[in-house]
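pasting for the record
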Amino acid sequence: MPAMADDPEAAALSVGDRDPELAEVLDKGLDEYNFAATGTSEQDQGSFSVKVTRANGEIIGGLTAWTWAGLCGISMMWVHPDHRNDGWGAKILSAAEKEARRRSCDRACVSSFTFQAPGFYEKYGYAETGRTLGIPGGGEDVHMFKRL
């Protein structure tokens, strides 16, 4: 028998814009599941950033990353186009790997679209582990891994 509208056990499906409350519930639920499945805990995870700024505070580039039980995942890395030949990419990546090691990480992963910088990461020892097809413009998402 279908659930009645006033039934507190009734469920409803909805689709909408970004929902911070939903994201928080999903994060918590997935963390609990992943911790149980891997024998890790909240103490095994963290996040950090590397930032390059001019004297006036303008951001030239940077990187955000997460850590989890010895794995460092690079979330985002960007360098302003005017500074892409100044060596900042290599300095940022090196600083991130050093921080990852300080946090007891012995491996790192990143993904980069084919029109972004997979060659940059390969130059610094990252190896391709797979690709996701169907990126707009005919690109692919290149998944990469490195032992630190």
